[in-house]
Amino acid sequence: MEAFQILSRGGVRFDKQRFKSDVQLFNDNKTEDDGKKKAVSISLDAKLPPELDFFKYAKGGSGKRKAIHNEGTGVSSSRQSGTVRKRQKVDDEGQHSDSDSGNEVEDNTLRPKHRVTAKGLDIPKPAETFEELAERYKMTPRLLANLREHNYKHPTGVQAHGIPILLERRDLAAISPTGTGKTLSYLLPVMASLQAPATSLEGAGSGVRALILAPTRELAHQIHNECLKLAIGRKWRVVLFSKAVASTLRAKNVRDKVDIIIGTPLRLVAAIQEGNLQLNNVRHLILDEADRLLDNEFLAQVQEVVAASTHPDMQKAVFSATLPAGVEKLAMGMLRNPIRIVVGLKDTPLPLISQSLTYVADDTSKLPSLLTYLAQPYNPPLLVFTSTQPRATSLAGELTLNGVPNVDCLHAGMTKKERDDSVARMRRGESWVLVATEVMARGMDFKGVREVINYDFPTSVQSYIHRIGRTGRAGREGKAVTYFTDSDAPYLKSIANVLLQSGSPVADWVLKLPKPSRMKKKQMGKVQRAEIVNPAREIGRRDAIKKREMITASKRRKAKMQQEEQVDSHSES
Ligand SMILES: Nc1ncnc2c1ncn2[C@@H]1O[C@H](COP(=O)(O)OP(=O)(O)OP(=O)(O)O)[C@@H](O)[C@H]1O
């Protein structure tokens, strides 16, 4: 695509006549660029230039991407080296092979359906079907029936590999793209391992046995609902932890009968500190969205929860679609003899999501661009991300004022009820456009979302991957559009590399931008934006206030004059 075409997509009109010479400049390079474009707008099968290898896969590194198959075809990517071909052969024969490090085994028993790399000692065999899992690990027929009832027919990649690992009571770090079924890959083994509810198990009623941590209340709520689907037909006590629940758990006889707790770190830590929650009987501790839970905001709280979970046989597992190297090191340090599985390419969205970048010059050009976009037919519901709460409120208001139907808003500054209602409307399909902040970026599974718009540039590469991952879930296709302004330009290259890794086309000129430094990347989330997305309304508001003040002043003056006139006429008479 020509550069000025990309610019035009953001609602910017180009007078080709006026900018003839500039257009000529782009077109002059066309033949030469076209050749290059072919090289940069690569499909997953093309060779990745080393300078664009954002995640350093091409270098091979520590053998991170040694065994990767293309989903559905079993054909290995031509980006991989000869080693891969050799390993491919091993894969097809279904054998394990020793890795270079000597004491680790890299599991290459991969079925063509899944692109999974597993690393660790004595890796359990993946399972083809849920029936195979049920038979191998003696799951209850009820659990299997609940799976069928909810249309879980075949395990996804992360489930096929992850469930046996957890059922063999091994610690696990699972990195799998958004929307690939990580929730079930820990819920099913946790419930199968617990075997039966505490209420019906002799001697098991001495405190909660499984704990699942999630970074937001909305996500914890969603996991809770998923867990309840598997719990149908038995008296499992699955608790979504909240302030109110914490007080009911003060009574030991209530607390002891709880099987599974799902909650956010802050609430749990408060309950532990108040003495309302003991975690010494926890046998399974799961961190969902682990990289978020282990970042600076949550780390101390998570460490406190881990420290309070003192059972000697406790199994730990971390899950996420992204796990930056530093956080992965931290996570691995928490696990005992862990197995690490990576589905697809680490930190790379699924090619199911078609991604694009749209230039919008400056912040004030975004609203007209979005309104133009929404004036054309689109596939609701659509998720729009802003960087701050006031901007989410302001944008939702502007869209409504401009006649966009069924606009909703969701951010952490809203009350619990407002947030719950907003999620519920989205689930019922009543919202056509949901404007949200980062709070909706991770884990939330709204099945119908076909499109995500990053109205404000994401705060990091991880934030980008999770935000766009709200679409393209469970094998469905999705579309993600990211607006960028001149202030976002320094960070554009980081996001463009993600597009490239996952097979979305990127304009040649974007790829020629310099790579942002580490320092620069850290500033990505700190771009200053106005609280109100429509400055005209701000001016309008200011004018209105001024006008009102003037009218009031003039009314007061008039009243005073009338009073004075009355006084004068009284004194004259
Ligand atoms: N085996 C399966 N068969 C069919 N659908 C499935 C299966 N496993 C999960 N799903 C569905 O896929 C969707 C995505 O699952 P889930 O929310 O667990 O993804 P995730 O990998 O945790 O995503 P994220 O990284 O965004 O949290 C859900 O709607 C879920 O019901």
Salient structural properties:
573 residues, alpha/beta, ten-stranded mixed β-sheet, 12% strand, globular, binds adenosine-5'-triphosphate
What is the secondary structure topology, with strand pairs?
Layout: H1 3-9, H2 20-28, H3 30-40, H4 82-92, E1 97-98, E2 105-107, E3 116-120, H5 130-136, H6 141-149, H7 157-167, E4 172-175, H8 182-194, E5 210-213, H9 217-231, E6 238-240, H10 243-248, H11 252-255, E7 260-263, H12 265-273, E8 284-288, H13 290-293, H14 299-308, E9 315-320, H15 325-334, E10 339-343, E11 353-359, H16 366-375, E12 382-385, H17 389-401, E13 407-410, H18 416-427, E14 433-436, E15 451-454, H19 461-468, E16 478-484, H20 489-501, H21 508-511, H22 518-522, H23 535-572
Parallel strand pairs: 4-9, 4-10, 5-7, 5-8, 6-7, 8-9, 11-16, 12-14, 12-15, 13-14, 15-16
Antiparallel strand pairs: 1-2, 2-3, 3-10
The structure holds adenosine-5'-triphosphate (ATP).
Can you offer a commentary on this structure?
The chain has 573 residues and is an alpha/beta fold. Helix content is 42%, strand content 12%. It has 23 helices and 16 strands. The chain has helices spanning 3-9, 20-28, 30-40, 82-92, 130-136, 141-149, 157-167, 182-194, 217-231, 243-248, 252-255, 265-273, 290-293, 299-308, 325-334, 366-375, 389-401, 416-427, 461-468, 489-501, 508-511, 518-522, 535-572, and strands at 97-98, 105-107, 116-120, 172-175, 210-213, 238-240, 260-263, 284-288, 315-320, 339-343, 353-359, 382-385, 407-410, 433-436, 451-454, 478-484. The protein has a 10-stranded mixed β-sheet, with helices on both faces. α12 packs across α14 (299-308). The longest helix is centred in the last third of the chain and has 38 residues, at 535-572. The chain is globular, with a radius of gyration of 28 Å. The model is unreliable at 1-112 (pLDDT under 50). Adenosine-5'-triphosphate (ATP) is lined by residues 152-156, 159, 176, 178-184, 321, 443, 445, 447, 469, 473-474. The site of adenosine-5'-triphosphate (ATP) has 21 residues, from α8.
